[in-house]
Design a protein that fits this description.
Helix content: 10-25%
CATH architecture of the largest domain: 3-Layer(bba) Sandwich
Order of helices and strands: EHEEEHEEEEEEHEHEHEEEEEEEH
Radius of gyration: 22 Å
Oligomer: single chain
Largest sheet: 7 strands, mixed
CATH topology of the largest domain: FAD/NAD(P)-binding domain
Number of domains: 2
Mean pLDDT: 93
Bound molecules: NADPH dihydro-nicotinamide-adenine-dinucleotide phosphate
Number of strands: 19
Structural class: alpha/beta
Number of helices: 6
CATH superfamily of the largest domain: FAD/NAD(P)-binding domain
Shape: elongated
Length: 318
């Protein structure tokens, strides 16, 4: 790959359905895009198993396979990839300057941001080390491993309640632990949860510690913030459902974001407040957060970048 400081027409930051689709459209439009794909290419779908809701796969498709196919399709049209993370970006003037963690620097006429969002964790001791050993932030990915087992889910929003309901397909019982005495999840989701005989809600309760042995998670130490009582709750699995954090830290406040840090896009377009910078996928979508909607927005971002470049070209040739 040419890493001299030439100006590229399109740089896509982040892989996943949004980034790959943007790359497909940009490369087919002859824009020779570079995707700076991070160190875990493919995004959240690479940690899932069966994807049954992506159109075109009547029998379903494995998440990692879907991502590998998407990437392969972009390579056919000349997309280039760099396994690196963007650590610094200067969006104050065009061409935009990007600096990666491997020291490479790039200039770009347009930038498409598709860095996704990551699940939030509680920040408890050993929480991260126990991922895959009883701790998970993805019921869809890991629920299967808890057949006839006891699981606890933490959170009171749509994510937690959706995870709890999904987990009842496998687990013998699902305890939903919430720090308040009411949920903020949508009414239909709450109705579904209260009607599910396999879900038991533990109100006003905070998880303080995850206990484990060589087999993985064994119990949770919890604190009731109304009674001040502290108890130990045996469990096989502990699922986080406390929301997601958009991956926008590297932008260092240069783009307008909403109260939760999601990039704000304009109306139905993927345009950000900076001309020439577009955002697609979960980094700008706290609502749908689906592979297919991310892919759709990736297509839109590439088309907007292409039209932006055409308009700039027309201006300079007046
Ligand atoms: P939310 O921000 O809506 O909810 C997060 C939940 O986690 C809250 O109940 C919050 O508690 C709790 N929480 C946060 N931090 C902690 C902590 N440190 N300790 C304990 N509890 C904590 O996030 P969601 O991911 O649930 O939803 C995000 C958006 O996505 C929403 O708009 C939602 O409607 C949407 N969504 C829609 C779905 C659907 O329609 N199928 C599915 C999933 C999400 P508290 O209430 O006390 O603040």
């Amino acid at each position: 790959m040419d890493t001299t400081l030439n100006t590229r027409q399109v740089i896509i930051i982040g892989s996943g359905p949004a980034g790959y689709t943007a790359a497909l459209y940009a490369s087919r439009a002859g824009l020779n895009p570079l995707v700076i794909e991070g160190h875990e290419p493919g995004g959240q779908l690479t940690t899932t198993t069966d994807v049954e809701n992506f159109p075109g796969f009547p029998e379903g498709v494995m998440g990692p396979d879907l991502m590998a196919h998407m990437k392969k399709q972009t390579l056919r049209f000349g997309t280039e990839y760099l396994a690196a993370k963007v650590t610094d970006i200067d969006l104050s003037k065009r061409p935009f300057k990007l600096t990666c963690d491997n020291g490479h620097e790039f200039l770009a006429e347009t930038v498409i941001i598709s860095t996704g969002a990551s699940a939030k964790y509680l920040g408890l001791k050993n929480e991260m080390e126990l991922i895959g050993k009883g701790v998970s932030a993805c019921a869809t990915c890991d629920g299967f491993f808890y057949r006839n087992k006891i699981v606890h889910v933490v959170g009171g929003g749509d994510t937690a309640l959706e995870e709890a309901n999904f987990l009842t397909r496998f687990a013998s019982i699902v305890y939903l632990v919430h720090r308040k005495d009411h949920f903020r999840a949508s009414k239909p989701m709450q109705d579904r949860t209260f009607k599910n005989p396999k879900i038991q809600v533990i109100w006003n309760t905070e998880v303080k510690e995850i206990l484990f042995d060589e087999t993985g998670v064994t119990s949770l130490r919890v604190h009731n913030n109304k009674t001040n009582e502290e108890t130990f709750r045996p469990t096989d699995g502990f699922f986080l459902g406390i929301g997601h954090e958009p991956n926008t830290k590297f932008l260092k406040g240069q783009i307008t974001v909403d109260d939760h840090g999601y990039i704000k896009t304009e109306g139905t377009h993927p345009d950000t407040n900076i001309p020439g910078v577009f955002a697609c996928g979960d980094v700008q979508d706290p609502y749908y957060r689906q592979a297919i909607s991310a892919a759709g927005s990736g297509c839109q971002a590439a088309i907007r970048a292409e039209r932006f470049l055409e308009a700039e070209h027309d201006k300079t040739n007046l």
